[in-house]
Amino acid sequence: MINCIKARRSIREYTPEPVTDEQIQTMLEAAMAAPSASNIQPWEFIVVRDATLRQQLAQVHPWSGMAADAPVVFVVCGRPSDSHHWVEDCSAATQNLLLAATALGLGGVWVAMYPRNQCEDHVRAILRLPETWRPLCLVPVGHPAETKAARTQYDAQRVHYDAL
């Protein structure tokens, strides 16, 4: 488990090999296994495979370009009307999704949309999302076409016991 966590890296280049339905299902199951405040689960997931839609998502901002080349893009959305903790809950789900991708030999990257209203509105328009949903992030996923070494960014100077 700890090796999978250390192996998870932001992967922005993908081979053309498709991501299978089974892999998508496994990643979504992992995402929805995340904790949420009062177990409200205020999340919705849009699975984008359509090349035209992925190309449009790639235009959301300068750091979303890899969405065009990823075989699949997950759009993680929250329902703020259901929970004041939707950001935290959807973030936990996103991390689980990314860890599951790594465990499956896939790579992905978190591309933030929230709290940029212009980015959120762009995604909402492309995917015809309800106004009550907030797109937290895009997660392009595919078979890695780049290799990054496992690592930790542990910094003992940022660890404090009991009090400062």
Instruction: Spell out the helices and strands N to C.
Output: HHEHEHEEHE
By DSSP (H or I, 4+ residues per run), the number of helices equals 5
Helix content: 25-40%
Beta-strand segment tally: 5
Helix-strand makeup class: alpha+beta
Outline:
globular
The gist of it:
The chain has 164 residues and is α+β, with helices and mostly antiparallel strands.
Which properties best describe this structure?
alpha+beta; about 15% strand; globular
Overview of this structure, please?
The chain contains five helices and five strands, in the order ααβαβαββαβ. The longest helix has 18 residues, at 86-103. With 164 residues, it is α+β, with helices and mostly antiparallel strands. 32% of the residues are buried. Strands 1, 2, 3, 4 and 5 form a five-stranded antiparallel beta sheet that branches. It is globular. Helix 2 crosses helix 4. The chain is 33% helix and 16% strand. The mean pLDDT is 97.
